[in-house]
Structure formats: C-alpha cells, structure tokens
Amino acid sequence: MKQLEPEPIANGWHGSLDLVYAHDHGATRLIHSQMRSPLKVQRSFYPEGPAVCHNIVLHTAGGIVGGDRLEQNIHLQADSHALITTAAAGKVYRSKGQEARHTIEIKVESGACLEWLPQETIIFNGAVYRQDLRVELAPGASWLGWEITRFGRTARGEQFLQGNWRSHSEVWQQGYPLWIERQWLPGSETSFNSPHGLAGEPIVGMLCWLSQPITSDLLEQVKKLWNAKENQGEAGVTQLIAGLLCRYRGTSTSEVRNWFTEVWQLLRLSSSGCSVKKPRVWI
Fold it and tell me: Where are the beta strands (DSSP E) in the chain?
C-alpha cells in the first residue's frame, strides 16, 4: 500500500483512493492501493473464503465539509470479486456555501463482480454536496451498488431545509448506457414535505444491480421480500435492461438495509449459487 501525504486545499481537503483487484488461482487480491488522506482502506478480509475480497474504506476526518474534494478509482480485473463498504455512516456537514464533491470511477472487467455497499450517508441541514458515480461494466461483468441517504440528523429533530444535494450515477457498457440516474434535492420545506420530494420522510435508498436481464419470476421474488414484512416505508422495484432497481423512502435505516441485504442475498444466490456474508463492521 502506498500512502501519499495529505493535501490541504484552500477550502478543504483533497483525498483520493486508487484500488486495483486481480484474480489469481481462485483468489481475489488487492494488488494495488494508493491513498491520500482523509481516505484510507483497511487490510483485506476473507470471511467468504479467498474468492471474495472484502475491504473497508475509512474517512479519517470524520466527515465531509464544504470545499472538500474526494476521488475514488476502483478497477476490478477479469474474474475478480470484491466487496467494498465503509467503516461507519458518512457525514456531510453544514456548509458556508462551498460545495463538497465526491467522484467515484469504477471499471469492472469481464467475469468480475463488484458489490459496492457503503453505509448510510447523513446530510446535515445546510450541507452542499454532490456525488458522481460512473461505472464501466464489461460484457459478462456484474455490479451491485446501493446508496442510503438520511436528510437531517433525525434524532435531533433536524430536517434538510437548507442546502443542496445532488447524486449522479451512470453505468456504461461498450459505449452504451445501461442506467443513468440524476437526483437533486434542494433543501427547503417544500422539497422535504412534497410527495414529489421526501414526503416528510428523512431517508431514501436505492439499490441497482446490473449484470444480465432478469426473469419475471426473479422480479416477483424481490417484490415479495418487501411485501412479506410489516414495513413502515414505501418501496418499489423496476426492471432494467440488464438488471433491476429498488427504491425506498421511509424513516428507518435498518428497514431499508435489511430489505436491500435480502435482495442482495437473492441476487447472489441466483447468479452464483453462493450465500452472502455481511461485512463485520455492520452492526
């Protein structure tokens, strides 16, 4: 692992993380890692055996502030399989007007699989934040990612009434878009309470799986995982060209993560016949 010196910029920190995974004799190894604070990666874990490499990303500054620039570049070579999560919930603090940016570039080669499963991100009232995620997915590759966002520190009664949040996600394959998502939520009472915004609910979640076209039977199984429980939030499932998309709006992080985890388990079993092993940092 190569650790670069932290680079302070005029109005924040410029942190970066570059990871490369390779498959060798049935095992996935992290063969290259270059880090610049405040982003770091812990040593690899193998709770599922050598085929799946688990890594935990840390943000050592404790949270993101206006002016911060974070960049992650992740490359999975052919036939590798990695699971990446975060050590704790992310926090985006109130800004004085400057935007914080987080850019994630992912390349997944043929036969490889990336499970991108960060923990919840908490957007403080007054935060100004933009995340850009772009995935280049080779034919025969697989990507599963989710995003769980809480608007305001709910335990304190805080709502997202000031600030700005944007999340842009794209998945491409051989020059063609498989999925493009643009989300924008300006902080205001209207956005927070509107049925076209948060409808008064502080948490939204999105899970996207892209690998191959799914059957109608698998789509129904995903829906039944939600309908079988006495959940309080709202949820929906959409079939994509080469996968599916799940959405959530509600009040409970555990509710959405439990559903997403069950969907992840179902998709893993249907695609590879193997069960999932939840990261040990999840509580």
Answer: 2-4, 7-9, 12-24, 27-36, 39-41, 53-59, 69-76, 81-86, 90-92, 100-108, 113-116, 121-123, 128-137, 142-151, 164-173, 176-186, 203-210, 234-240, 243-250
CA–CA distance, 61 with 119 (Å, rounded to integer): 16
Q: How many CB atoms lie within 10 A of CB 135?
A: 24
pLDDT-based confidence at 7, cuts 50/70/90? Answer: very low
Beta strands in 138-202 (DSSP E): 142-151, 164-173, 176-186
pLDDT of residue 1: 55
Contact in structure between 137 and 101 (CB atoms under 8 Å): no
Residue-averaged pLDDT of the chain: 93
Predicted TM-score (pTM) of the model is 0.94
Q: What is the mean pLDDT of residues 58-75?
A: 95
Please, are residues 12 and 66 in contact by the beta-carbon 8 Å criterion? yes
